[in-house]
Amino acid sequence: MHHARRRRTLAAALLTATAVLVGGCAGDDGAKGKGAREPALGPVAANPAGSALSLPLDAYTDSDAEARRMEAVQNRLIALCMARYGFAYEPPASRADTGGGAEQGRHGALFGVADPAQAAARGYADASGAGDSAKPAPPQLTESATAVLFGTRQGETTPSGPDPRTQEEAERTDSGIEAGGQRVPAGGCLREGYRKLYAPTKDSVDLLFSFGLASEAHTRSQKDSRVVAVLKDWSACMEEAGYDGVGTPYEVVEKLGLEADKAGPKAVAVAGEDVACKREVNLVGVWAAVETAYQQGLVEENAETLALYRKQRDARFKLAASLA
Questions:
Q1: Segments of the chain with pLDDT less than 70
Q2: Around 282, how many Cα atoms within 13 Å sit in the side-chain half-sphere?
Q3: Taking the domains of the chain in order of start, what are their residue ranges?
Q4: Model pTM?
Q5: CA-CA distance, 21 to 18, in Å (whole number)?
């Protein structure tokens, strides 16, 4: 659709990126000006691959492979807890084990579909395979084993007792439930496995702390004048291609009615134009540079907590090695 329309050259995209970079620096120098709150930008790459992007908070979050490793460690801790009560525990298969969860890089879909090959092959279908495989069946357990796993009393479906935040606190907490003459941990073995891995002591940094910062940076970036401008250009390009009323890449599927068949011919056609427009205005390059700037600011503001988080993350990897 509208394939003959004029596209900007890569050189033009680089000029646009340079202008954005200079604009960011100007906002920083004029500290009392209108753009004082918008950070200066570092290099603005020309149409970088989303799957290859690296952002400052990546140093404080797990990759897909690391997350799967931590999932296995947590399941091992749960199994060890269950064994104390005489129960064998086989965790449900992860999506990786059932064929889903292919590694795409951390930020492959951060700004919507941006890879021409993916757009041509799958449209807006999730490249990770989420939803493509059957949900793993939960383990079959006796009533007694279920009570130990979940920390529930007979007839309950969810724990009603205390839920300590840390393992230190849990070891001083009486759940009020026993099995085989032993006290069941508050929240059952599921919660114990989590606490031993992610919250062993009172100074444990919340697992979601770094993700919260990344979410905050992304929210700020969406309001940044440089992202607003590039989104306006992208939206105008999409309108020129015949797709009106789409303000951001996150609205495309819903506003153009593609939910029912995200990999169908229409979705593939729209995705192709979407990616072409992103490349025309260098949306990924500009937005990634802006997001990097906001993340870097948050890293500096939260340096002490993030240093503790990284130390505790390293301790989790050591625990993983000891349980291998």
A1: 1-36, 94-104, 127-139
A2: 26
A3: 10-323
A4: 0.82
A5: 5
